[in-house]
Amino acid sequence: MTTLIRPVIVRQLPKRLNVRQRRLFFRDLLKHMDGDRPRIVLDCGNLRECDKSGVLLLLRCLEEAMKRNGDVKLANIGPATRELLERTRAKRLFEVFDTPAQAVDSFYRFGAGAVSPAFLSENLQGVSESAA
């Protein structure tokens, strides 16, 4: 059985997210979510002004990706945007990386947090007992 690994899509957010920019950005992003399991990195390096409507855009992008069993990760967010994400408690919904390259790499790594230590200890204990 062959599993197709979808490419990671990296999109740069514009400097400002006015109503028109948000609509255009979201419409463009939806074009890249045509299949199953979209993997998207939003590079926030250019973003200078972000308000609550900008946070809602990020959440909407995440929602659309999750509907397709995918994920959205953020990269290169500035201090003001980071603080706004923390104040609105939206930051806990995203993995945030310093660079887009780190965010892209994270899609290819098997995360250490993907399996809980309790699960590992319970299952490895059963394996070691049956081997003895």
What does the model show?
The protein has 132 residues and is of the alpha/beta class. The chain has one domain: Transcription Regulator spoIIAA (2-Layer Sandwich). It contains 5 helices and 4 strands. Strands 1-2-3-4 form a 4-stranded parallel sheet, with helices on both faces. Helix 1 links the parallel strand 1 and strand 2. Helix 1 packs parallel to helix 2. The radius of gyration is 18 Å and the shape is globular. It starts with 7 loop residues before the first strand and ends with a helix.
What's the helix and strand layout?
Elements: E1 8-12, H1 19-31, E2 39-43, H2 52-67, E3 71-75, H3 79-87, E4 96-97, H4 100-108, H5 117-131
Parallel strand pairs: 1-2, 2-3, 3-4
Helix pairs in contact: 1-2
Question: What tags apply to this protein structure?
Answer:
5 helices; four-stranded parallel beta sheet; 47% helix; alpha/beta; globular; Transcription Regulator spoIIAA
Short description:
With 132 residues, this protein is of the alpha/beta class.
CATH topology: Transcription Regulator spoIIAA
State the helix count.
5
CATH superfamily membership, which one? STAS domain
Biggest pleated-sheet summary = 4 strands, parallel
- Cα-atom Rg, whole angstroms? 18 Å
Number of domains: 1
Give the helices and strands as they follow along the chain: EHEHEHEHH
Distance between the termini: 33 Å
